[in-house]
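Example S7 (structure tokens).
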């Protein structure tokens, strides 16, 4: 592939990403259904989001972290960090948390391990 074609492809993809994020931001999240593993599926414009419910029986520290993680998914911005909203090459929207954010998946897994609570890993 030559450089001009690659540059054009990146431009088209960037424009797609901007349109997609604008459509997602413009829509309100609408609850769709519960799914196994304590999560909920939400639709927000063209995006489908899977957010964990805050487990009532979990230790307080884990409940607080899941609350931040869930809020970040549903609000498209994290209350715990200046997370970066991105679109993957496949067109999936996801929020990348800053390192060390209490709501980051890495922190949730670390907490689950330390507290002896199984955290289901989602793709
Ligand atoms: Zn965060």
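Recovered sequence:
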């Amino acid at each position: 592939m030559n450089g001009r074609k690659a540059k054009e492809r990146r431009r088209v993809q960037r424009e797609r990403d901007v349109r997609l994020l604008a459509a997602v931001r413009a829509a309100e999240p609408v609850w769709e259904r519960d799914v196994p593993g304590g999560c909920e599926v939400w639709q927000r414009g063209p995006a489908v989001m899977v957010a964990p419910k805050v487990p009532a029986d979990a230790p307080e520290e884990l409940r607080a972290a899941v609350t931040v993680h869930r809020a970040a998914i549903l609000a498209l911005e994290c209350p715990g960090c200046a997370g970066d909203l991105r679109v993957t090459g496949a067109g999936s929207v996801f929020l990348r948390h800053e390192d060390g954010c209490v709501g980051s998946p890495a922190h949730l897994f670390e907490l689950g391990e330390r507290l002896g609570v199984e955290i289901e890993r989602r793709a």
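Notes on this example. The mean pLDDT is 91.
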